[in-house]
Amino acid sequence: MRFSTVTLALILLVVPAAAEAQQAQSLPRLAHVVPAPPGCKISTVSEAFLQGLHDRGYVDGVTITVDRRCYSTPDQLPSIFQDVIARRVNVIVAAGNIAAEAAKRATSTIPIVMVHTDPVGTGLVASLARPGGNVTGVSGTPPELAGKRLEILKQLNPRLSRVTLLFEPEVDPRARDEIETASRALRLTLQTSAIRTLEDLNRAFDSVARNHPDAVVVHAGAGVITVYRQRIIDWAKEQRLPLMFNLSQTVEEGALVSYGADNHDVYRRLVSGYVDKILKGADPAGLPVEQPTRFTLLLNLKTAKTIRLAIPQSLLQSADRLVE
User: Fold this and answer.
1) For residue range 163-175, what is the model confidence (pLDDT) as tens digits?
2) Which domains does the chain have, with CATH numbers?
């Protein structure tokens, strides 16, 4: 059979394209579901996770397909998971309590790697040692560390007397109990605001303006607070309020201080490690849930200058990292 020049050219174009499409379909597919404001800007934690995958030989579009999905409200999660399941993903990485629980409701067969505050208490796993289902991953910062955040704020400002706590109701209630216990021990007046929606957050801003606290402590679990954390950070700087977060990445984003698990390390080392093991054939039911062992104190010196707060030398020396 003889081919014309045009026909041969078309064959040369179509065959590689078909081969690439077939290769893409044969690559393992990962769904990475994260909280983010509209626009789905990639965070430094997501970058750390992708770096961890890269360190293990997974390159998006070459050795794996990473399907990144963002949600700004919990009601978006069912349709997101319905879609990624229809695409026959091999692994789901669910960042935070809300996403992990929604993923578990959506599928009992596709492996899920979660980061969750209390996976046993919420029934995501049977136990940390033997999860027993399709979910494994990393548990959050131990709740007993939550009270330490108030102690750090007291070190920052010995005159501290009034503190506002912003929290997501989905977060482990034991952490809130620890904060309330610490506030009593430190003789602080604690005002709490549960943040479920953006409207709740705006009302909390108004409440702070009326009550004039000395500082704000935030306990987030990948819900509305996490999605709109940059708005909280910018607002606190405008109000010249010391802002303490439980999320380490927020200090790079402008928060004054954070204390908790190093989320960059958690996603780069632990979460990517679970994905690697599962793609190599490990059963999530038998992969123990890991608990963070590295807890860091981060301080933003530029923010301290902006809000006109002098950080004591003792805290500067004990900080794991100073952001300038």
Assistant:
1) 999 998 877 788 8
2) 28-140+264-286 (3.40.50.2300), 143-261+295-323 (3.40.50.2300)
